Amino acid sequence: MSDLIRTARARSGMSIYDLAPRLGVTAGAVSQLERSERAGTIKLASLERALDALGERLHISTTPATMAEKHLMSARSAARAIDAELKAADPAAALRLTTQAIDHFRRADSENEIADFLKKPPAISDPRWDTLFATAVAWDAARRGITPPRWTMKPALEREWVPGPDSGYSARYVELIKSTAEPEFLERGIVIREKDLTAA
């Protein structure tokens, strides 16, 4: 996994035979120590002791995990991808990306990952889709007990809208969808059901 001991030896010009007496072990034990470090099985105390004998200190730090490191979308990457699909005239793909983004948001399980997902995204060029995406994020955040960020607060659409590839839905079909639609979306003029927001 790492080569800190061997690298430190090289910097100091020491061989395993030079390091061995400083650690009170044989040269073979030093060689085994370096092998265990490369294999990722070395004990932290052993690594620190070896580096100390070489006049070096081990410093460990962490960085917050990001959604990209887990190969998951954030609100920022999702909004850009949705916008690209809309510009390519593919609303079906845009809807799939919206549901996938919510699924990825649900996989954010640490505070750092949640905060990374919720950073303000660029606006989606179609205001209906921008409102849909913002509402979906706010809806899922609230269901998880997470305070939705301010960017998710969008005004209601001027005309009622059923997201998807077909804009010519019959009034009867729209009423059927509305009967089981999510209230948070209906308040913003978006007619969509929970099952339409679930990634397959």
Automatic annotation (TrEMBL):
It comes from the Bacteria. Residues 5-58 form the HTH cro/C1-type domain. This is Helix-turn-helix domain-containing protein.
